[in-house]
Structure formats: C-alpha cells, structure tokens
Design brief:
Bound molecules: manganese (II) ion
Largest sheet: 5 strands, antiparallel
CATH architecture of the largest domain: Alpha-Beta Complex
Number of strands: 14
Mean pLDDT: 95
CATH topology of the largest domain: Creatine Amidinohydrolase
Strand content: 25-35%
Number of helices: 6
Length: 309
C-alpha cells in the first residue's frame, strides 16, 4: 500500500516527469520517422531515449502503418522500412513508478493525407479543450465524431480513450470516439483522475478486426505448481517486464535471429499455458483504408485540466 505514503504532490511530479519525457520522445520520433528508415531501429532509439531520461516505456512503442490502427510494435530485427506514402501511428507510453502517460502522433509525408491526419489532430485539440471535471464522456465522443465526420472521414468507434491508474493503462472508464457509446459505471470526467483521449479516423468505414499478428504481450498470472521449466521462464520474464505490456524486445539485449527464435518459443509456451496474453494488431477491415490517430493524457483537476503530454 505504498500509495498511502505517497503525497498528491509526489504523484503529480511523477506524472509531470513522465509527461516531459513523453514529449522529448515524441519530438525525437518526428525527427527519426523518414522514408527509407527502419521502424525497428527507430522504436529502439525512442525507447532508449525514454530510459535515458529516467522513464520506463509503459508499453512497447506502437508503429502501426496505413490500415493498421493499433498494436503493431516492431519485433527483434524487424525489417519494416518506411515508405513515402505511409501513414504511421507512433504511440508511446512512459511511466515513473507506475504513473503512466500515453500519447500518440500520426506522421505522413504526402499532402494527400493531410486532411486525414489533421482530422484526428483537430478532434483531439477540441476534445482536450472541452474536458473538465463533470463533463460528460459522451459529449467528448460527440465532439470527436463530428470533427472527424465533418472532415469527410469516419471515427473508429471500437477504439476509445481510457482512464489510467497506477500500473493500469486501461482502467475501466472509456473515453469514446463517438456519441452513441454505452457506459458502464462513470459517465463523466472526475476530478483527480487521469485520462487518455485518442481519436482515430479512417478513410473507409472505420470497422476494425484483429489480425493474425501479435507482437505485444502481457503477463496475466503467476504459474501454479512446480513445473520447473515454466517457473524458470516466468521468473525471467517477470523480472524483466513486470506486469505492464511488453515486447519480445524487452526480454533480451541480444539482437540476433537465434535469440528472436528462442524468445518467440518461450512466448508461445507461456501463451499456451495462459500465463501471458497477446494483443493482436488491430486492422481496418478494408486493406485500402488509411487510419490516423492522435492521443494525449490529461489530468483533470477540480477547476482546471493539465495536459501532461
Ligand atoms: Mn491509449
Ligand atoms: Mn496510446
């Protein structure tokens, strides 16, 4: 129960530090993301920057391209190269002592995609401007949806923003990207709470599905019993990645194909025993779709809102 001993002031300074680091990481990302560059090398550089500045990546940096909406994170020695016409969603998380910020930006190089990219950027700006304690979650959803549809695109309704709690990225309450959302529990923003707001827009219908590919995982339980091999693999993973989402890249410093194969074998072993879960890459149902996303984390106060990222 360490939170009892942690003052509000200390928590705030941890959130602010995580936020400052996320801004530096995003700035670096915008500089590094260029046609011809390798996605794997870029995310490694971004995550190393986060660590260098005293933060920890709260989840594997997402590098979802074109019709991929979310959850693609480069694998060990991933060969993905950035194309001239790619629309890249760079989504990163930073935590200090479990206090997480979550932020994303979309990068593209062609004028054709400006209006798509601007639609989520503007939707996010308007959403953040309208957040305050007591504001209806639904109202923010409506603002996001109308901004995106007025620009000629469709919001991805199945994806949403979310409340963030210590060590919990998706903490129950959802911040919708449309006005028709159904709510379980809270229906308003509450003072003293942290929320990620993340509009997504698609050039097609905005319907998504899970792909066959997963490169983000999370430990969900400790193995029971005395299966020696299982316990050994679990202990090794747990020590390295804890309880937050992880990439196979987080489990090793060795960037070789042999190591990649070995780690993937262990991941399959843990998946089969339901010790870890996978986050499949989420893709637009149409492969021709282009998807844009922008995301900020905000701290809602009694009478003000602080943009952390
Ligand atoms: Mn998020
Ligand atoms: Mn995110």
């Amino acid at each position: 129960m360490s939170q009892i001993n942690t003052s509000g002031k200390e928590i705030l300074s941890k959130y602010r530090k995580a936020g400052r680091i996320s801004k530096s990481a995003k700035k670096l990302a915008k500089k590094l993301i260029q046609p011809g560059e390798n996605a794997y090398e870029i995310v490694e550089e971004i995550e190393n920057k986060i660590r260098e500045l005293g933060g920890i990546p709260a989840f594997p940096t997402n590098f979802s391209v074109n019709y991929e909406a979310a959850h693609y994170s480069p694998e060990i020695l991933d060969t993905r190269i950035i194309g001239e016409r790619d629309v890249i969603k760079l989504d990163l998380g930073v935590h200090i002592d479990g206090y997480i910020v979550d932020t994303a930006v979309t990068v593209s190089f062609s004028d054709d995609t400006d209006s798509l990219v601007n639609s989520t950027k503007t939707a996010l700006t308007k959403a953040v401007e309208n957040v305050h304690a007591g504001q209806k979650l639904k109202t923010i959803g409506k603002i996001i949806e109308s901004t995106i549809t007025q620009a000629g695109f469709n919001p991805i309704k199945e994806l949403s923003g979310h409340q963030i709690k210590r060590y919990v990225l998706h903490a129950g309450v959802s911040v919708p990207n449309h006005s028709g959302a159904q709510f379980l529990g809270a229906s308003e923003f509450e003072s003293g709470k942290v929320y990620a707001i993340e509009p997504f827009a698609s050039t097609m219908t905005g319907a998504i599905k899970e792909s066959e590919v997963s490169n983000i995982f999370r430990i969900i339980k400790k193995p029971k019993g005395n299966h020696e091999k299982l316990n050994k693999i679990f202990d090794d993973f747990y020590q390295k990645v804890g309880i937050l989402p992880f990439s196979p890249r987080f489990v090793t410093d060795k960037n070789t194909l042999a190591e990649k194969k070995e780690i993937n074998k262990k991941i399959q072993f843990l998946l089969k025993r339901k010790i870890i879960m996978k986050y499949p890459v989420l893709i637009e149902k149409s492969k021709r779709a282009l998807v844009s996303q922008h995301e900020h984390t905000v701290l809602v106060g009694k009478s003000s809102v602080e943009l952390l990222t």
